């Protein structure tokens, strides 16, 4: 049986399982992943070139992610059950008995990422959130770690129901799966060009499906004059760590750092050695973007860096705001690797308005401020940063996405194809659910979450009869 056949057969079985049963699969999967870490991590090192400490931290994060969605499933709040009692005296005329909840879409296709072989791959957040929703998952493995993908699936499938998780390989197979009518939604983390092409395929199907893509991000960070005066060295070292970590192959790497005109920025990349890039395609793309940036008029090299057989070392350049605007077609594109651009601005100029106009949507935006700093200029800047990013950081760096309920990992295009969703945090489950209402249904035909005896013990929000005449009173 193919992965798609198995997923289609499993879909009604998984959808019928109570939330706590779904939670038990995810907890067991997390445990199996941790037990297999000594087997999986060396394989990941071999295929990706990422370091063992980084990968052991990532496998722990992935297990935590699975457990987090186990909590989401067990609580049952994600079903968003709403019960409106029949009301013959409703202010607009008699109201029927209405019972609404969210049901799983069905089989989900997950295009795995190259840069997180655990956390955004076979066992990653897209898989965890879809399983918690009651959807089987077919993962299109990334060609950068094919053996790890298969082995990870084997480990997880010791804990999951039959057909809940399958893996396919190859670009043609991924496109064919995306076009298959049994697939009801797709998630993707990768390049802008690849994501746009797949999104177009999903939209062009006879019955289009939602496509949740994470495509690219510049993640601008602004340093105020007061903050630079207060702690320039600390800002420089934090910036260097954020740009160079995992050779800059992170979707949240700060690609633009805006600092006020004045003394030289204390770049601190001297101790950063070469780090292998994930696969030849990334080497080619990064080398091309680096050459484009270095060849742009008005750009000054602060740290030249290099790309060699041993890997890449960081490249840092500097320019001013006028040059950035003049050469926006070259400079305002993501360089997926250890490269960033320092942009000088004049204190007091409307930087926020400029950023909102020229910088495309990002996963994150940040600002470093001094202790107690506050001004109309700063408020305007923060408001502008909110318009272009899904997460706004203060006095920190965007790398290191917390696995926690309130996290937002998405943003306006091209950060994501859908700015209203997230791929990290508990709200990610909503991507794989749709609402259904039962109207005046006989009690015997109601699904468990909508029954008055509530056999699944999930939260139910009830609207009793007789409330409508008082609607609006809270506004007073």
From TrEMBL:
It holds the Pfam family Aldedh. Residues 2-261 form the Aldehyde dehydrogenase domain. Its EC number is 1.2.1.4. GO terms for molecular function: aldehyde dehydrogenase (NADP+) activity. Residues 449-476 are annotated as: Disordered. The keyword Oxidoreductase applies. The keyword Oxidoreductase applies. Keywords: Oxidoreductase. This is NADP-dependent aldehyde dehydrogenase.
């Amino acid at each position: 049986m193919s992965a798609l056949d198995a997923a289609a057969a499993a879909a009604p079985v998984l959808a019928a399982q109570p939330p706590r049963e779904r939670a038990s699969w995810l907890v067991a999967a997390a445990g199996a992943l941790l037990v297999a870490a000594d087997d999986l991590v060396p394989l990941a090192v071999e295929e990706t070139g990422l370091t063992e400490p980084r990968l052991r931290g990532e496998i722990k994060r992935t297990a935590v992610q699975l457990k987090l969605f186990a909590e989401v499933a067990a609580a049952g709040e994600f079903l968003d059950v709403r019960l409106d009692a029949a009301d013959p005296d409703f202010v607009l005329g008699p109201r029927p008995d209405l019972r609404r909840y969210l049901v799983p879409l069905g089989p989900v296709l997950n295009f795995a990422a190259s840069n997180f072989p655990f956390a955004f791959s076979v066992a990653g957040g897209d898989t965890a959130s879809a399983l918690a929703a009651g959807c089987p998952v077919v993962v299109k493995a990334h060609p950068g770690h094919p053996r790890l993908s298969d082995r990870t699936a084997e480990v997880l499938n010791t804990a999951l129901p039959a057909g809940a998780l399958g893996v396919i390989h190859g670009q043609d197979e991924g496109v064919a799966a995306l076009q298959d009518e049994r697939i009801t939604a797709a998630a993707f983390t990768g390049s802008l060009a690849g994501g746009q092409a797949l999104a177009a395929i999903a939209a062009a199907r006879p019955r289009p499906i939602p496509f949740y893509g994470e495509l690219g991000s510049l993640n601008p960070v602004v340093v105020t004059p007061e903050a630079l005066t207060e702690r320039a060295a600390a800002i420089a070292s934090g910036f260097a760590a954020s740009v160079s970590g995992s050779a800059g192959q992170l979707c949240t790497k700060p690609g633009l750092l805006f600092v006020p005109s004045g003394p030289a920025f204390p770049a601190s990349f001297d101790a950063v050695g070469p780090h292998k890039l994930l696969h030849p395609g990334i080497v080619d793309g990064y080398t091309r973007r680096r050459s484009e940036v270095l060849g742009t008029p008005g750009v000054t090299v602060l740290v030249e860096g290099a790309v060699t057989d041993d890997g890449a070392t960081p490249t840092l350049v500097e320019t001013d705001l006028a040059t950035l605007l003049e050469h926006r077609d070259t400079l305002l594109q993501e360089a997926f690797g250890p490269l960033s651009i320092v942009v000088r601005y004049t204190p007091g100029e409307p930087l926020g308005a400029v950023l909102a106009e020229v910088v495309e949507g990002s996963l994150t935006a940040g600002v470093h401020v001094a202790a107690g700093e506050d001004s109309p200029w700063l408020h305007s800047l923060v408001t502008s940063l909110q318009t272009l990013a899904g997460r706004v950081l203060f006095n920190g760096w965007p790398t290191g996405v917390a696995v926690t309920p309130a996290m937002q990992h998405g943003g306006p295009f091209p950060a994501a194809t859908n700015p209203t969703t997230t791929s990290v945090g508990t709200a990610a489950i909503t991507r794989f659910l749709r609402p259904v209402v039962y109207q005046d249904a006989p009690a015997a035909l109601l699904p468990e979450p909508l029954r008055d005896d509530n056999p699944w013990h999930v939260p139910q929000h009830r609207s009793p009869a007789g409330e409508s005449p008082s609607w609006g009173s809270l506004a007073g």
